[in-house]
């Protein structure tokens, strides 16, 4: 009778019985059921309906209690002496034992309970799990959590709570404080479990929203002691709450939760419009992304239309997006269906734009790949057709044939020809796609592009050379005379030999520009490179071929570019070459290059064959020769290029600078004219340096401003005079020297050398009143920030004056007791030794 009453009550109102039992404690509820069932003498009824009671009543967390309490109460022989199964009348006791041992065997398809407060805590880091929308795969490696999940599955309680971690970078599977996670999550059912020993693999299905109430202590360590006590006297394990201090120290594995039921809503026209817009956006996304389409098909319900279920539609729509974890958690926590739909619609619109952009980029990349593939396919077909017709040979054969054609036009030395033949033979056995093939091909390309046996015809006509040099440069007689001597010796000897010349002088005197004129006068190819600041020997002698991206030095590059064995090579700024470093000493590398006895067999590191540089004319330039090492200076013929005086600058400006600058500015002759007096004033007050570089800048400045006045209509023709010169170049930089017609007593004039040329200065002498007795020996004070040499000169002059006066004018005792003050004004413009 008790059996029938209990079963009828469970069928009629199971939530009352189960809910009341959960409030009293899970073990007490089960003990009450067991006590009632003991009163029944018909064990067959129990066995046939045991699954029913197990589903509605047995939700204990004690694995030992469920198995042993059941076996003790209900196992045994029936009336006919047969063994009854723990899972039903048809299963044997051995099958029941295997089910308890294997967690996966307990995952039978059962109805998920509506109330299940105490669940294991599972954590996710990137995106939350939504109810009734997806199957999520998780992997667990924490030993404590693995043990808890195995026990729960064995008990037939394959449920858990999945909550999102606040920190996405947190990789922990268990936490010590509930503040590390969001308090709203999803109640999930473990659909499948695979035990790999040290880790678990699970498939989870979300069911409903839940909220954390508190953390619950796991009582698995007390199970062995409690299983021997009376069932009715068991403590309430599910309500054993730990205090906050313990939660901070121990990992939280179990939590007590409460359901978050959906708020009631009215299906208004506004709600219907929002659902329709969400469906439309989802269709648009699915049309672009096929993966989204598959996800939708897996989660669509079969018993209800999606448009009639806004709750499911909101969860499904949010799950389809790739939004941030915080945004998806906000959707999960929102209980107002209207607000939730609005949030999901915004995320879907954003996802739609991202999907369109991804599709656009993917199409662009796909089209590009298809085009390249099509081009490659057509190219390979064309090669095959040409090969069949005999029009084109293999790549390797074409490369070898190209090198052999180059060699026919060159007079290659024997030692170089031998190296080329060896490399060609080596190249014929290499795979065209190998890296060694490219190295050998590049090496042969350099060897076959060198000007072996090629020379330009030298000019032995002195008059032509003189005309070329005079047309380009004014003065510089020493340099021109040396070039004429070089031409004369070459003409007398009948052969051309190289020389090493160094032109040194102040900046702007034309050292670099005259080198190009010399190359034109001699009919030689011209190549220039600067060694200022160079610290790497490889820039001169090349890299070893073993290095990736290696190449020859500047000299070999020059010969390849000019295609001549007798060019004129200008090595600029040789006095500013870098010092020795871990890359080597470039100065020492120049010794072999600039030595006439060694450069006939110059060895570049890359080519690794001797190259004859004896026919090359090397011209080096320097501002000062003190910084050039003595061994290198000894190998060069030094020619000084002095600065220009005012008359020379005037001629250079009239004959060269003004015509060239007018042509560059597009000004025709006669439109702008500069008077000679203006040029003299410009040179005297603005351009006192040794060279003419600054003079050229000032002339360009005048012509630019003149061009502006002409184009703006301010004038039709301009004449630059001494009166309007300052309008174009500004105030004078150098003032007039102070001169005396007759120097007053105590003042004498001197001359000094400066960086701007020569200059005059005055030495002023005066007496000062003595504060002491008149018979004391005289003194002398020197001012003007003089150098040591100038101070010594003043002392020598004072001593000589005293001796001269004492010898010729014995009665004159002025210098013996005079207090003298000697001052040199404007001494900052002077150059002191």
TrEMBL record:
<keyword id="KW-0720">Serine protease</keyword>
<dbReference type="GO" id="GO:0051131">
    <property type="term" value="P:chaperone-mediated protein complex assembly"/>
</dbReference>
<dbReference type="InterPro" id="IPR046336">
    <property type="entry name" value="Lon_prtase_N_sf"/>
</dbReference>
<protein>
    <recommendedName>
        <fullName>Lon protease homolog</fullName>
        <ecNumber>3.4.21.-</ecNumber>
    </recommendedName>
</protein>
<feature type="region of interest" description="Disordered">
    <location>
        <begin position="218"/>
        <end position="246"/>
    </location>
</feature>
<dbReference type="GO" id="GO:0006515">
    <property type="term" value="P:protein quality control for misfolded or incompletely synthesized proteins"/>
</dbReference>
<keyword id="KW-0732">Signal</keyword>
<feature type="domain" description="Lon N-terminal">
    <location>
        <begin position="116"/>
        <end position="352"/>
    </location>
</feature>
<dbReference type="GO" id="GO:0005524">
    <property type="term" value="F:ATP binding"/>
</dbReference>
<feature type="signal peptide">
    <location>
        <begin position="1"/>
        <end position="21"/>
    </location>
</feature>
<keyword id="KW-0547">Nucleotide-binding</keyword>
<keyword id="KW-0645">Protease</keyword>
<dbReference type="InterPro" id="IPR004815">
    <property type="entry name" value="Lon_bac/euk-typ"/>
</dbReference>
<dbReference type="Pfam" id="PF00004">
    <property type="entry name" value="AAA"/>
</dbReference>
<dbReference type="InterPro" id="IPR003593">
    <property type="entry name" value="AAA+_ATPase"/>
</dbReference>
<dbReference type="Pfam" id="PF02190">
    <property type="entry name" value="LON_substr_bdg"/>
</dbReference>
<dbReference type="GO" id="GO:0005759">
    <property type="term" value="C:mitochondrial matrix"/>
</dbReference>
<dbReference type="InterPro" id="IPR015947">
    <property type="entry name" value="PUA-like_sf"/>
</dbReference>
<dbReference type="Pfam" id="PF05362">
    <property type="entry name" value="Lon_C"/>
</dbReference>
<feature type="domain" description="Lon proteolytic">
    <location>
        <begin position="742"/>
        <end position="833"/>
    </location>
</feature>
<dbReference type="GO" id="GO:0004252">
    <property type="term" value="F:serine-type endopeptidase activity"/>
</dbReference>
<feature type="compositionally biased region" description="Basic and acidic residues">
    <location>
        <begin position="236"/>
        <end position="246"/>
    </location>
</feature>
<dbReference type="GO" id="GO:0004176">
    <property type="term" value="F:ATP-dependent peptidase activity"/>
</dbReference>
<dbReference type="InterPro" id="IPR027417">
    <property type="entry name" value="P-loop_NTPase"/>
</dbReference>
<dbReference type="Pfam" id="PF22667">
    <property type="entry name" value="Lon_lid"/>
</dbReference>
<dbReference type="InterPro" id="IPR014721">
    <property type="entry name" value="Ribsml_uS5_D2-typ_fold_subgr"/>
</dbReference>
<dbReference type="InterPro" id="IPR003959">
    <property type="entry name" value="ATPase_AAA_core"/>
</dbReference>
<keyword id="KW-0238">DNA-binding</keyword>
<dbReference type="InterPro" id="IPR054594">
    <property type="entry name" value="Lon_lid"/>
</dbReference>
<feature type="binding site">
    <location>
        <begin position="505"/>
        <end position="512"/>
    </location>
    <ligand>
        <name>ATP</name>
    </ligand>
</feature>
<dbReference type="InterPro" id="IPR020568">
    <property type="entry name" value="Ribosomal_Su5_D2-typ_SF"/>
</dbReference>
<keyword id="KW-0809">Transit peptide</keyword>
<keyword id="KW-0496">Mitochondrion</keyword>
<dbReference type="GO" id="GO:0007005">
    <property type="term" value="P:mitochondrion organization"/>
</dbReference>
<keyword id="KW-0378">Hydrolase</keyword>
<dbReference type="InterPro" id="IPR008269">
    <property type="entry name" value="Lon_proteolytic"/>
</dbReference>
<dbReference type="InterPro" id="IPR003111">
    <property type="entry name" value="Lon_prtase_N"/>
</dbReference>
<comment type="similarity">
    <text>Belongs to the peptidase S16 family.</text>
</comment>
<keyword id="KW-0067">ATP-binding</keyword>
<dbReference type="GO" id="GO:0016887">
    <property type="term" value="F:ATP hydrolysis activity"/>
</dbReference>
<dbReference type="GO" id="GO:0003697">
    <property type="term" value="F:single-stranded DNA binding"/>
</dbReference>
<dbReference type="InterPro" id="IPR027065">
    <property type="entry name" value="Lon_Prtase"/>
</dbReference>
